[in-house]
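Memo to structure team: turn this sequence into structure tokens by end of day. - J.P.
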Amino acid sequence: MNAIEIENLNFSYENKKILDNITFNIKKRKLTGVLGPNGCGKSTLLQNILGYLNEKTNAIKILGRNRKNISSKENAKTMSFVPQKSRLNTNMTVYDFAMLGRIPHIANPWVGFSSEDNAITKDILDKLHLSALSERIAITLSGGEFQMVLLARALIQDTCILLLDEPTSALDLNHSIALMKKIKSEIEFGNITALVVLHDLNLASLFCDELIMMKDGKIFIVGTPKDVLTKENIMNVYHLDCNISFTDSGKPYIVPNV
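Reply from structure team:
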């Protein structure tokens, strides 16, 4: 069974078609990247999958079930989301902010978080090397630190599907690689499926098992990094002239001609 199945998904906003007959499947326990230039519909696609938009669609299935038949609580136990940034503006500690991921699992709202919720939170923060920051006010963290906390919150939510919208967009190369390594590790050892929107084609090539390249609200090509990241495809989609090199492991590496 695929984790996510999408067939003929369309979405319009203010009479403008944003997504046009989107069709693809996301395999379980794989990291799939979504690529494409600004405005091509990548983030809108994630919002449809999450149910933030077009919630009554018949085009999306999550673990074999029609998206519209999944309740909000079930959805929150199935899929978690890492945004490219958070609007947090309160003085919450890192620990309290990360623990918000346990809200869908609270059995009794009058009792609040359980000892199990605390144990899961502490375990994930430790795995991501964030324990030393637990008592820090979250908004005082650097961009790289806070992005890792956003990932922690999503993992603490304990879902089998992880969606990420440009999680490395504000990070330096070192933090970007660290974040992607953690995601790959969770997929390998935590039985998670991940779908990530990325702008960095080389990061996508290095870490993703499969890529979906979009153009003008449509799927341009789906395949392995080697299939997708060709000189011709990049010119057609990004209007970028480049050369393609390959790593020792056969991963394509894009070098723009400037």
